[in-house]
C-alpha cells in the first residue's frame, strides 16, 4: 500500500496526475487482453505441436473478416459470430494442419516457422486483393454500446467486455490443459506420442484438434477486435511480431506464462505510452532481449 | 540446432576443400564472371545491380544459416544500417563511393559484433528471436534518429566518382564497380566456407557438443561467422545505397529479414550458388510482377509453402542432386 | 521488339484517326499504391481516371497515341525510385502520374529531374515538392500539407477551436503536418497546448486520445493518415471524446476513409479537400462515369487530380506538337488550366497547381440521402488563399 502511495507521489512529480495513470493502466490491460489471447493460442500450439505458428496473425485477421462477412452476407450477429467464427476458422486450421503442417513434425522447428510464414503471406495477400486495405467498419453490438464513467476515465462497455471475455477464455484454457484428463492426454502425447498411442489414444487426431483450437483462439481474438480496430487485411501482420515477443518472454509453450506475460506487457506498454510514447512500439522487444539474455527459457518456461 | 540441409551429398564437405577451388566451381565462377561482364549490354544495368546486391546479401546470410547453422531473423539490421551509413557518408560527408561503401561495411561489422556477442549465447528459435528483437530496435532507431530522415530515408545520394577519378553516374560504369565488389564478396565467402575455419563451422552445425569435446571454442567460431555474415550483409547494403542513391526504412524492416530467408531457402541453403539463384529469382519476380500488386506477396507465400513442403533443398540443391556434385 | 511495337501502334492510330497531323506517341505511367494503405484512394481508380482523360480528350482523333502502364510502389521510396528509373530508361515512359506517399514522391521527383522527364503528382502530401525540393520537371496537382493545414486549421480556429492538441504520427510526414498546422493555428490566434507522437503505424490510440482528452484542448488535430486516422477517429468516438465536446480535426482524410469509417463514427469531422464528387453537375456527371467503369466507388480527389493532370498534359502535347519535356513543362505553366473537375486554374512557376480548396463537414447518418452522400460544404477557400504563397516555399525556381 505504501508502495502504491509512494508511486503516486512520484508520478505526480513527473507531471502525470494519478487518475490519468489509472486510465492508462486500464487501457494497457485491455491491450494486454489481446496479447494474452493471441499468445495463449501460440503457446498452446508450440507447447503441444512444437510448431511456431507464424500464420497466427493472419488467422486473427481471418477471425475479424469472417465475423464481418457473416454479418454482411448472412446477417449473423456479433454474439453468434463469437461462437461461429472460431469454429469456421478452426476448421480451416485443421485442414491446414492435415494437409501441410503434419508433414513437418519430424523436421526442425524452423521449417514450421517458414511454412506458416508463407501461409500468412498468402492469406493476407488474398484478403488484400479481395477487400482492399482501408478497412471495413464493424459496429459495436448495441448491448455493449456506451460506457461507464469511472471517475478517472470513461470506460467504454465494450472494452470492459474484452477484458472479461479474455480472462474467462484464458483461464478456462489453462484449466483444461493443466487440470483435466483431456489436458493430461495432450501433455502426455507431446512428451511421448508412441506410448500414448499404445494406450489407444489417437495421437495425430489429438494434435490436429489442438492446432485447430489454437487457431480458433486467434479467430476469437479477431472477433473481439473487429469492433475496436478496423477490420483490415494487415491487422495481424505487425501484431504477430509483438505477440511472438510476448510468448518468448513468457517462456515458449508455457500456458500460464503466456497469459500473465500478455496482460503484464500490456500494462508495461501502457506506462511507456505515458512517459515515452515514441518508445511504446519497441519496449516489448527491449524486454524480450533482456529476458532472453538473463533467463533464456523465458520468465515462466522450464529450461530445456 | 541442427538445420537440415537437404541431401547428405551437400552437407558433406568437399574433400579437397581447403586446398583450393573444386574444378567445377571454378568453371561456374568463370561463367558467372563472363556473364557479368557481358550482361549490361543485354539487360538493364540497374536491375542487374539490384540482383547482385541481393545476391551478396543472401550469400552472406547463407554463410550464417547454411554453414553456421544459425537462423537469424534480424539480418535486415546489418543490411539496412550499413546502407544508411554509406548513404550518409556519401551525401553529407562527401566521401568517394568506395570509402562510403567501406564506412557502411564497417558499421555493419560493428553492429554484427555487438548483436552477435549477445545473440550467440542462445540457440535455435531463441537465437532467431534475439536477433529479431535487436533488429526491431535498430528499426526503431532508424525511424527516430535525425540523420536517417525517418520515413523519407536518405534520398539523392550522389554516386560520386571512384577514387575521385572515375565518374560513376553512368549506369554501366557503376555496374562494373558493383560487379567487382560483389564478385570479390562472393569469392571471399567461398574461401571462408572452404577454409579449415569453415570445416569447423560445419562440425559445430552437425554436432555442437562433439565439437566442444574436441576442444573447439564453439562460441568464438559462432561469433566470428556471425560478424563475417553481418559484415558482408553490410557490404551489400552499403553498395545498394550507392546504386539506388537512396537508403530507406524498407532495408531495416523485419520483412527484409524474411525476404533474405526466402531467397536462401528458395535457392538452396548450404549450397554455394543457391542464394545467388534465389536472389535472382525473387528480385526478377518482384520487378516484373510489380504491376500485379498483392499477387507478389501471394506468390512469395506459395514459394515458401511449396519450398518447405516439396523441395527443401532449394533449386540449386535439387540441381546438385542431379549432377551429383555439391554446387 | 519495343520499337516495332511502337511503330505498329502508331501506324494503327494513324489508320484509325486518318488525320494529316504528325503523330505523337506518349506513354503515361501511373505509379501508385495498388495493394497497401492508399490502394483505395489511388490504386486502380487512378488508372481509370487517366484512361478517361485520354478518352475525353479524344487523343486518337488529334493524332496522339497514348499508352498507359501502371505499377505498385508499395509506398516505399526505394521501390518507387527503382520503377521510375526503369520506366524512363527501359520502357520509354514520358510522364509519371499520381505517386501517393510523400517519401515515394520525393524519390520520383529526384529521378524525373535527373532524367529530364515529366512528373505530375496527385497523391502525395508533402509541400516540399514545390518548396525546398522543387524541380522544373514536377507539377504538384491536387493538394499539399500546407493547403490542408491552412484549410482545416484556420477554419477550426475561426469557429472557436482555439486550444489545440496534436496526435501526430511519428515520422517525417506527421511532423511536417503538425508543424504546418501549428503555424496556421498560431497565426490565427489559437494556441497549441500539447502533442503526443504515436508509433507509426499504430493500432491502439486510446492511450494517446486519453492524454488529449485530459489536456483541456478544444480541438484534437490528427496529424496522421490512412489507417492511423481511421483508427484514431473510431476510438475517439468509442471513448466519448467527441461527445465530451472536443472536436476532431482530420488533417489528411479522404473520401474513402470516411467510407470505411461509416457516417455513424465519422460524423461531424471537419476536413479539407480539393474535390468532391457532389460539388456540381460536371463533377457529378464525371464521377458517375467513373463509378461505372470501376467497382462502383466514387472518385477521390487524388483520382480526380490524375484525370485533370493528364488532360492538361495532353493539351500541352497538342499545343507544342511534340513531347519535349522542357517545352511541355513551359507550356503547362504558361497555359491556364481548365477541366470539369477543378474548374479554371493555373500551374505556378514552382510547379504548384492552383485551384480552390473546400472545407467540408461529414454529415450525420440521418442527413445523408444515399450511398456516398457524405460531405456538407462548409466554405470555399479561394485559389489565391488556398496555397502557400510562392515566396514562402523556398523554391529555387521562384527566385
Can you describe what's shown?
The complex is a heterotrimer of chains A (304), B (327) and C (399). Chain A has 304 residues and is mostly helical. Chain A has one domain (28-103, 156-294). Chain A has twelve helices and two strands, in the order αααααββααααααα. In chain A, strands 1-2 form a two-stranded antiparallel sheet. In chain A, α2 (18-49) packs parallel to α6 (157-179). Chain B is mainly α. In chain B, 69% of the residues lie in helices and 1% in strands. Chain B has 14 helices and two strands. Chain B has a two-stranded antiparallel ribbon. In chain B, α3 packs parallel to α7 and α5 packs antiparallel against α10 (218-244). Chain C has two domains: 2-143 and 279-351, 3-Layer(aba) Sandwich (Rossmann fold); 146-273 and 356-384, Response regulator (Rossmann fold, 3-Layer(aba) Sandwich), CATH 3.40.50. Chain C is built from 14 helices and 15 strands. Chain C has helices at 2-17, 43-57, 77-91, 102-115, 145-158, 172-187, 206-214, 226-238, 255-261, 263-266, 281-293, 301-320, 325-334, 383-386; strands spanning 24-32, 64-72, 95-98, 118-121, 138-140, 163-169, 191-198, 219-223, 247-250, 270-273, 337-339, 343-347, 353-354, 357-362, 375-381. In chain C, α12 (301-320) crosses α13 (325-334). Chain C starts with a helix and ends in a 13-residue tail after the last helix. Chain A binds chain B through residues 52, 100, 103-104, 107-111, 113-115, 117-126, 128-129, 241, 244-245, 248, 252, 278-279, 281-282, 285-286, 288-289, 292-293, 296, and chain B through 1-4, 71, 118, 121-122, 124-126, 128-130, 132-134, 136-137, 140, 144, 254, 258, 261, 265, 293-298, 300-305, 307-309, 312.
Please name the defining characteristics of this protein.
heterotrimer; B: 327 residues; mainly alpha; ABC transporter involved in vitamin B12 uptake, BtuC; two-stranded antiparallel sheet; 14 helices; globular; disordered N terminus; C: 399 residues; alpha/beta; Rossmann fold; 2 domains; 5-stranded parallel beta sheet
Amino acid at each position: 500500500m505504501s508502495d502504491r502511495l509512494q508511486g503516486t507521489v512520484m508520478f505526480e512529480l513527473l507531471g502525470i496526475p494519478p487518475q490519468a495513470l489509472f486510465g492508462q493502466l486500464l487501457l494497457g490491460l485491455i491491450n494486454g487482453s489481446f496479447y494474452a489471447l493471441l499468445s495463449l493460442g501460440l503457446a498452446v500450439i508450440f507447447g503441444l505441436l512444437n510448431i511456431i505458428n507464424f500464420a497466427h496473425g493472419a488467422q486473427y485477421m481471418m477471425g475479424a473478416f469472417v465475423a464481418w462477412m457473416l454479418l454482411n452476407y448472412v446477417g449473423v450477429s456479433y454474439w453468434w459470430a463469437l461462437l461461429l467464427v472460431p469454429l469456421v476458422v478452426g476448421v480451416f486450421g485443421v485442414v491446414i494442419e492435415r494437409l501441410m503442417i503434419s508433414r513437418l513434425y519430424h523436421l526442425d522447428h524452423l521449417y514450421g516457422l517458414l511454412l506458416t510464414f508463407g501461409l500468412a503471406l498468402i492469406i493476407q495477400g488474398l484478403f488484400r486483393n479481395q477487400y482492399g486495405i482501408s478497412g471495413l467498419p464493424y459496429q459495436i453490438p448495441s448491448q455493449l454500446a456506451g460506457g461507464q464513467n469511472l471517475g478517472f476515465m470513461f470506460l467504454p462497455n465494450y472494452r470492459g467486455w474484452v477484458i472479461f471475455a479474455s480472462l474467462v477464455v484464458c483461464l478456462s484454457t489453462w484449466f483444461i490443459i493443466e487440470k483435466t484428463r483431456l489436458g493430461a492426454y495432450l501433455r502426455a502425447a507431446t512428451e511421448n506420442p508412441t506410448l500414448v498411442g499404445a494406450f489407444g489414444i489417437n495421437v495425430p487426431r489429438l494434435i490436429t484438434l489442438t492446432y485447430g483450437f489454437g487457431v480458433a483462439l486467434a479467430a476469437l481474438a479477431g472477433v473481439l477486435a473487429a469492433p475496436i480496430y478496423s477490420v483490415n487485411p494487415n491487422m495481424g501482420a505487425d501484431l504477430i511480431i509483438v505477440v511472438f515477443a510476448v510468448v518468448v518472454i513468457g517462456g515458449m509453450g508455457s500456458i500460464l506464462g503466456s497469459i500473465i506475460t500478455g496482460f503484464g506487457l500490456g500494462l508495461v506498454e501502457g506506462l511507456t505510452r505515458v512517459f515515452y510514447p515514441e518508445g511504446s512500439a519497441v519496449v516489448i522487444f527491449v524486454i524480450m532481449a533482456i529476458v532472453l539474455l538473463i533467463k533464456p527459457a523465458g520468465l515462466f518456461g522450464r529450461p530445456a | 540446432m541442427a538445420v537440415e540441409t537437404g541431401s547428405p551429398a551437400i552437407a558433406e564437405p568437399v574433400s579437397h576443400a581447403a586446398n583450393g577451388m573444386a574444378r567445377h566451381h571454378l568453371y561456374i565462377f568463370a561463367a558467372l564472371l563472363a556473364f557479368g561482364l557481358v550482361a549490361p549490354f543485354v539487360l538493364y544495368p540497374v536491375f542487374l545491380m539490384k540482383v547482385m546486391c541481393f545476391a551478396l546479401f543472401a550469400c552472406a546470410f547463407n554463410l550464417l544459416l547454411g554453414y553456421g547453422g544459425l537462423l537469424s531473423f534480424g539480418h535486415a539490421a546489418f543490411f539496412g544500417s550499413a546502407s544508411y551509413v554509406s548513404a550518409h557518408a556519401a551525401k553529407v560527408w562527401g566521401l568517394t563511393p568506395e570509402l562510403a561503401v567501406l564506412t557502411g561495411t564497417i558499421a555493419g561489422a560493428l553492429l554484427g559484433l555487438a548483436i552477435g556477442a549477445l545473440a550467440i549465447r542462445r540457440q535455435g528459435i531463441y537465437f532467431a528471436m534475439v536477433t529479431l528483437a535487436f533488429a526491431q530496435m535498430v528499426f526503431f532507431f532508424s525511424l527516430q534518429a535525425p540523420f536517417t530522415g525517418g520515413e523519407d530515408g536518405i534520398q539523392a545520394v550522389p554516386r560520386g566518382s571512384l577514387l575521385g577519378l572515375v565518374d560513376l553516374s553512368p549506369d554501366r560504369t557503376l555496374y562494373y564497380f558493383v560487379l567487382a565488389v560483389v564478385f570479390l564478396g562472393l569469392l571471399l565467402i567461398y574461401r571462408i566456407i572452404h577454409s579449415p575455419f569453415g570445416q569447423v563451422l560445419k562440425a559445430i552445425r552437425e554436432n555442437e557438443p562433439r565439437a566442444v569435446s574436441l576442444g573447439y571454442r564453439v562460441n568464438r567460431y559462432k561469433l566470428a561467422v556471425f560478424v563475417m555474415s553481418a559484415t558482408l550483409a553490410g557490404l551489400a547494403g552499403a553498395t545498394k545505397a550507392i546504386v539506388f542513391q537512396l537508403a530507406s526504412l524498407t532495408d531495416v524492416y523485419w520483412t527484409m529479414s524474411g525476404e533474405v530467408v526466402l531467397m536462401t531457402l528458395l535457392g538452396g541453403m548450404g549450397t554455394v550458388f543457391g542464394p545467388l539463384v534465389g536472389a535472382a529469382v525473387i528480385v526478377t519476380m518482384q520487378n516484373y510482377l510489380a504491376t500485379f500488386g498483392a499477387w507478389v506477396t501471394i506468390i512469395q507465400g506459395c514459394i515458401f509453402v511449396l519450398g518447405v513442403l516439396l523441395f527443401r533443398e532449394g533449386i540449386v540443391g535439387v540441381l546438385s542432386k542431379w549432377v551429383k556434385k555439391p554446387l | 521488339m519495343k520499337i516495332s511495337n511502337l511503330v505498329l501502334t502508331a501506324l494503327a492510330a494513324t489508320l484509325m484517326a486518318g488525320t494529316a497531323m504528325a503523330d505523337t506517341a506518349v506513354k503515361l505511367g501511373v505509379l501508385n499504391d495498388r495493394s497497401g494503405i492508399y490502394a483505395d484512394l489511388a490504386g486502380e481508380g487512378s488508372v481509370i481516371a487517366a484512361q478517361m482523360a485520354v478518352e475525353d480528350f479524344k487523343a486518337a482523333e488529334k493524332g496522339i497515341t497514348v499508352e498507359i502502364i501502371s505499377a505498385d510502389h508499395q509506398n516505399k521510396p526505394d521501390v518507387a525510385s527503382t520503377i521510375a528509373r526503369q520506366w524512363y530508361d527501359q520502357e520509354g515512359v514520358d510522364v509519371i502520374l499520381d505517386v501517393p506517399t510523400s517519401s515515394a514522391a520525393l524519390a520520383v521527383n529526384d529521378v524525373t529531374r535527373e532524367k529530364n522527364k515529366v512528373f505530375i503528382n496527385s497523391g502525395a502530401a508533402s509541400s516540399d515538392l514545390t518548396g525546398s525540393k522543387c524541380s522544373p520537371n514536377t507539377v504538384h496537382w491536387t493538394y499539399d500539407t500546407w493547403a490542408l493545414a491552412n484549410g482545416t486549421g484556420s477554419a477550426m480556429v475561426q469557429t472557436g477551436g482555439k486550444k489545440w492538441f496534436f496526435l501526430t504520427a511519428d515520422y517525417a510526414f506527421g511532423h511536417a503536418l503538425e508543424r504546418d498546422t501549428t503555424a496556421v493555428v498560431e497565426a490565427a490566434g489559437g494556441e497549441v497546448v500539447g502533442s503526443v507522437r504515436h508509433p507509426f503505424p499504430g493500432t491502439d490510440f486510446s492511450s494517446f486520445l486519453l492524454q488529449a482528452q485530459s489536456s483541456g484542448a478544444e480541438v484534437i488535430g490528427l496529424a496522421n493518415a490512412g489507417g492511423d486516422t481511421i483508427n484514431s477517429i473510431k476510438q475517439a468516438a468509442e471513448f466519448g471524446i467527441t461527445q465530451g465536446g472536443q472536436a476532431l480535426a482530420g488533417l489528411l482524410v479522404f473520401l474513402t476513409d470516411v467510407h470505411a469509417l461509416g457516417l455513424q463514427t465519422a460524423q461531424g469531422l471537419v476536413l479539407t479537400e480539393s474535390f468532391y464528387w457532389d460539388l456540381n453537375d460536371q463533377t457529378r456527371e464525371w464521377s458517375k462515369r467513373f463509378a461505372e467503369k470501376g467497382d462502383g466507388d466514387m472518385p477521390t480527389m487524388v483520382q480526380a487530380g490524375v484525370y485533370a493532370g493528364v488532360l492538361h498534359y495532353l493539351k500541352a502535347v497538342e499545343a507544342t506538337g511534340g513531347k519535349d519535356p522542357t517545352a511541355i513543362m513551359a507550356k503547362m505553366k504558361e497555359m491556364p488550366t481548365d477541366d470539369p473537375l477543378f474548374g479554371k486554374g493555373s500551374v505556378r512557376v514552382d510547379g504548384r497547381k492552383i485551384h480552390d480548396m473546400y472545407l467540408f463537414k461529414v454529415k450525420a447518418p440521418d442527413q445523408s440521402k444515399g450511398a456516398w452522400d457524405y460531405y456538407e460544404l462548409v466554405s470555399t477557400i479561394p485559389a489565391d488563399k488556398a496555397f502557400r504563397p510562392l515566396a514562402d516555399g523556398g523554391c529555387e525556381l521562384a527566385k
